[in-house]
Design brief:
It contains 24 helices and 24 strands. The longest helix has 22 residues. The protein folds into five domains: about 60 residues, Helix Hairpins (Orthogonal Bundle), CATH 1.10.287.610; about 220 residues, 2-Layer Sandwich (D-amino Acid Aminotransferase, Chain A, domain 1); about 100 residues, Nucleic acid-binding proteins (OB fold (Dihydrolipoamide Acetyltransferase, E2P), Beta Barrel); about 150 residues, DNA polymerase, domain 1 (Orthogonal Bundle), CATH 1.10.150.20; about 70 residues, BRCT domain (Rossmann fold), CATH 3.40.50.10190. The protein is of the alpha+beta class. 2-(butylsulfanyl)adenosine binds next to strand 3, strand 8 and strand 11.
């Protein structure tokens, strides 16, 4: 056994080292095949001897499954943000101000400002023990399970001290685009930009999903465990195996700083990750301390923000799209052009007011700006570049899909014909989509065909499909009909919240549907609810409450609900089975345990207890395994109760 244990630790160390050589140093020493062989050996040992498994094992990179909840953490050192400057003059005056205050013996660093999500990573005894989001700077969220999956974040380092490292987790533009393409195919909501995608991925409960998101991180600071200055600390962090951006410059003169900021801006387009500026910092820590900080930001650093990217292109056409709620949106079709690393050929024109405000015509040369959204905006028209053959855009008075008269609701025109093919198709697509009933095989194309054939018009028709008729249809093989039938049958198992979301109440997204399902428990209770009782629910505002009451009182919707009830769909929520033996108690596990930490933590949560991430007076029990270190010491100092695994198991049994 000792031999296996030694081999296990040797493999963990070896694979973590090769990971660093591959991802950080770009200098692999072994082939992918050799890596795979070692990895498989490690995996085998973990399956055969689960007690040996450590949470800094490279197998954690693929994700360790789902956590029940995301806990909050109080940052040891407040995670400061940055004040912005927007032009050279402002930046020069900041630099001059610093030199005036502290003299000429100061140097500055310049580095890209990565547009992602800020994290702090804590290392103890050479192991990554915690990852946290910035949150409000004082309290963030514990996301260790997800940061462990990021290949460029070391799980082990060659420094036994306690280190708190800061960095920006980002999603490369290419990964962002393929993620959104996949989400579009699955009819999931798109991420507005790589920053939101990175932040959203970090907050996933399921680390196996986070592992697929192709995240990366640039390290930009050391909060605990510092040396003398920022530049040499970043150099040291790079040696330890962190990814440090290579566009880091150390400058003595103001002009050098300005040149470095401009040099990064010039490279902006060629980078495969998004940056929104450059960061200028005083290099020496003792000077940083002398300058101090405000509540939010240090006085020794500034972000220099680059302007939002703008490009010129031609508006080739405008088409009007009818959404599943009947809203008609003008979509601009553009001559394809590159902005912020991605090719753009469409933009939204929002509504009739926006077209009028811009005074835009088809054929115009327009300026596009990519701000925070995936869909760029047309911000102006170059009227002086008109040739005379441009044509005005006329907003239709009739629905482009069913020709019924559009109705104006504030700035929007809507089709209010419930039988409009665009609305019918949209409602069916939404119902079958992944976040709703997830009926694989029932995509846009098949829905269109079935609507055309008169076989589908409302979602409950899906459960009355005539499979014999389907089998007789062109290009629909026996196997796909069988798969579709299975997927439809399986969808009947979907929880009430998904059914509720699938019905398509305006302004009820999946999160709201979950809240409603939990609060009201059944469709009957929800249909009985009045405006006041809906508004009493945390997170539901007046407009949402109005939409719910109005929609559920429509006879068309009531017929749909009856039809879906007849099909056997779930219209009441199942109560979660949880115990309460540990209700309200807070636990923390430390040291080597005989079961995985996650198993223990799951049992605490299942019995109503909570896991907190550091030792404080608030902690009720520290459960101590072998070789416990600083946490045990701290608990003893604070007088927190410490128990061993046996004692914990007894507590769990309610003894
Ligand atoms: S330094 C105390 N350096 O920008 C110093 N921040 O707008 C704090 N960011 O919260 C920040 N790249 O998440 C620093 N090279 C960089 C950065 C960077 C991106 C983010 C960071 C910070 C935000 C402030």
């Amino acid at each position: 056994m000792q031999e296996i244990e030694n081999r296990y630790h040797e493999l963990v160390e070896k694979l973590n080292r090769h990971n660093k050589l591959y991802y950080i140093e770009n200098a692999p020493e072994i082939s992918d095949e050799e890596y795979d062989t070692l990895y498989k050996e490690l995996e085998r040992i973990e399956v055969e001897h689960p007690g040996l498994k450590v949470d800094y094992s490279p197998t954690q990179r693929v994700g360790a499954g789902e956590v029940d909840s995301i806990d909050t953490v109080t940052h040891e050192v407040k995670m400061l943000s940055l004040d912005n400057t927007y032009n050279e003059e402002e930046l020069r005056s900041f630099l001059l101000g610093v030199i005036d205050a502290v003299g000429h013996n100061v140097s500055f660093t310049v580095e890209p400002k990565i547009d992602g999500a800020s994290v702090s990573l804590t290392y103890e005894n050479g192991k990554l023990v915690r990852g946290a989001t910035r949150g409000d700077g004082s309290v963030g969220e514990e996301i260790t399970h997800n940061v462990r999956t990021i290949p460029s974040i070391p799980l082990t380092i060659d420094d036994e001290r306690r280190l708190v490292v800061r960095g920006e987790v980002f999603m490369p533009v290419n990964s962002f685009e393929s993620l959104n393409e996949e989400r579009e195919r699955n009819e999931q909501a798109l991420f507005a930009n790589p920053r939101n995608a990175a932040a959203g991925s970090l907050k996933l409960k399921d680390s196996t999903e986070a592992a697929k998101r192709k995240l990366d991180m640039f390290t930009f600071g050391l909060d605990v465990g510092r040396g003398d200055d920022h530049h040499s600390d970043l150099k040291y962090l790079k040696e330890l195996g962190f990814n440090v951006n290579k566009r880091l410059t150390l400058c003595k003169e103001i002009d050098e700083v300005i040149d470095a900021v401009i040099a990064i801006e010039n490279e902006r387009d060629s980078l495969d990750y998004e940056i929104d500026g450059a960061v200028v910092k005083v290099n020496e820590y003792h000077i940083q301390e002398e300058l101090g900080q405000t509540i939010k930001a240090p006085k020794w650093a500034k972000a220099y923000k680059y302007p939002a990217e703008r490009v010129k292109t031609r508006l080739e056409d405008v088409q009007f799209q009818v959404g599943r709620m009947g809203t008609v949106t003008p979509v601009a079709y553009l001559e394809p052009v590159k902005v912020s690393g991605s090719t753009v050929s469409r933009a939204t024109l929002h509504n009739a007011d926006e077209i009028e405000r811009l005074g835009v015509r088809v054929g115009d040369i327009v300026a596009l700006e990519k701000g925070g959204d995936v869909i760029p905006k047309i911000i102006r028209v170059y009227e002086d570049e008109r040739k005379g053959d441009e044509r005005g855009i006329v907003f239709p008075e009739e629905c482009p899909s069913c020709s019924s008269r559009l109705v104006r609701e504030s700035a929007y025109y809507k089709c209010v014909n419930p039988e409009c093919p665009a609305i019918v198709r949209g409602a069916l697509q939404h119902f079958a989509s992944r976040n709703a009933m997830d009926i694989e095989g029932l995509g846009e194309k098949l829905i269109d065909r079935l609507v055309d054939e008169g076989m589908l018009s409302t979602p409950d028709d899906i459960y009355r499909l005539d499979y014999d008729k389907l089998r007789g249809m062109d290009r629909l093989g026996e196997k796909s009909v069988e798969n579709l039938a299975d997927a439809i049958e399986k969808s009947k198992e979907k929880p009430f919240s998904k059914v509720l979301y699938g019905i398509g109440i305006p302004s009820v997204g999946i999160k709201t549907a979950e809240v409603l399902a939990e609060e009201f428990g059944s469709i009957d209770a929800l249909m009985d609810a009045d405006l006041q009782s809906l508004e009493r629910v945390h997170s539901i505002g007046t407009l949402v409450a109005e939409d719910i009451v109005k929609t559920l009182s429509e006879s068309r919707v009531q017929r749909l609900i009856e039809g879906l009830k007849d099909a056997g769909l779930k219209f009441s929520a199942e109560k979660k089975q949880t115990g309460s033996t540990l209700e309200g108690l807070k636990f923390l596990f430390t040291g080597k345990l005989s079961k995985s930490r996650k198993d223990y933590e799951d049992s605490v949560k299942a019995e109503g207890g909570r896991i907190i991430s550091s030792v404080s007076k608030n902690l009720d029990y520290l459960v101590v395994g072998e070789d416990a270190g600083s946490k045990l010491e701290k608990a003893q100092k604070l007088g927190v109760k410490t128990i061993n695994e046996d004692e914990f198991n007894k507590l769990l049994q309610g003894d």
